[in-house]
């Protein structure tokens, strides 16, 4: 049974108080409306700041997943300098297109993209959706996980996924995490 649908009945684990008897998702503590004087009232509340941070991170991951999916859907489209799709792209045009479809507006050029996104990321902390800048900052791709990136590499090529091989690592100048 999936964690989202599995539940435990509180009366089976010791609570006989009808105010809190019911189903509890296994994956977490439910939000319960308990009477104001109940001894458990407020015991399971998550601080608002932590909830906001978790929600913000979840939204960023969702946007990143969408940007990766959109970029992957362009695989096979030809490189064309200055193009922002659909149908053809240069490297930064693919990034602009994919992230715009995910609800995030980015500047048009690689240099502007790198400067505009405030969250810098190290090589070791790359996550899907991060922008990877190589070749002196003149090339950008979107990290898709497992040591690979989707990009529109150069004239005569098509959008594709490549491994971040030794060359890319050697020419790596930085990475950023859009959508925060």
From TrEMBL:
Keywords: Hydrolase, Protease, Thiol protease. It comes from the Bacteria. Pfam families: NLPC_P60. Gene3D superfamilies: endopeptidase domain like (from Nostoc punctiforme). One of its GO terms (biological process) is proteolysis. Belongs to the peptidase C40 family. This is NlpC/P60 domain-containing protein. It comes from Acrocarpospora phusangensis.
